[in-house]
């Protein structure tokens, strides 16, 4: 159905557009933290129409190099106009598309690769349409013997909200909940100041130390985990280094909210030509009534707009968090009330290449996720 030719490439013009997860900057950064990566050009013919794509494929080894997983974030998108293809045909065509891409890439990947994991760039405004699409893909995969498996654990957050930055600042604020506009102004009125740091800041190491302290405080409160401190430092410094060298790569920044000399909240962001991403956040248990997180996000949004990003991605929210009884209702409302468009991506899909080893790995992966997300939180009373 799809005729696909694969060519390995060493360079690209797409260094600061599209999804940040596909940029060489991000992939090279990840390669310093346990991954390897390759970039390919895919020449794909579909119903007589030829299209060219570029894709980065990350690879991570496990069990001392005995096996590895290939990971393709935010790729591919639908290869056809959805207005011209019925919902049923969309799932049939897209299932075949993932299957054929995986088989075309397989010879280029390490021989110990047990599966190719996709996080497709396919999203819906309606959550239940997304659920229905995934159900359809499962049926198609079974009926057509494609071998695709919906992963139990999504790698990238499939549900998020995108704040449109193309309007004026007043227009952006107008789309927010009135309470959020009030909180932003209240925070500034109460004396909260937001300061921005980049990889060139002379006191960067000190500020990363503070960010990491706040991260540990947040993790203790919410029961989450985070990266090592060197991970954040490498990310922000490598961005500044590349930009200083004249390269067009995403800008990584650290924003810290202060009140009367006390640093009480912080976020780390990524700006590219297409998108701005709220990557990481942390806050103190103190002075939360001053609403520093609202002012942090608004400051970053204004800077992202000035940079030229088209939208600000809050990067993850509970899909059913609108329900007041949901345990993450507060997080959902915090992000949703900035007035963005809520979208639901279809999440992670696997194409097993070594089915037996993949089944063992998938079981272990699901067990690990259950332990950290359910058991450990209950043991800590969350």
Concise account of the structure shown:
The chain has 382 residues and is of the alpha+beta class. Helices cover 38% and strands 27% of the residues. Strand 4, helix 2 and strand 5 (113-119) form a beta-alpha-beta unit.
| DSSP helix fraction | 25-40%
Shape: globular
H/E topology pattern: EHEEEHEEHEEHHEHHEEEHEHEEH
Average pLDDT, to the nearest integer?
93
What is the total tally of β strands? 15
Task: Give the percentage of residues in beta strands.
Answer: 25-35%
Low-confidence stretches: none
User: How widely separated are the two ends?
Assistant: 49 Å
Main beta sheet: strand number and arrangement? 8 strands, mixed
CA-atom Rg in angstroms: 22 Å
Order of the strands making up the biggest sheet: 6-14-8-13-12-11-10-9
Q: How many helical stretches? A: 10
Structural features, described:
It is a single chain. The longest helix has 25 residues. Helix 5 packs across helix 8. Strand 3 and strand 4 form a beta hairpin. The mean pLDDT is 93. By secondary structure, this protein is an alpha+beta fold. The protein contains ten helices and 15 strands. It has an eight-stranded mixed β-sheet, sandwiched between helices. It has a seven-stranded mixed β-sheet with strand order 1-2-3-4-5-15-7. The N and C termini lie far apart (49 Å).
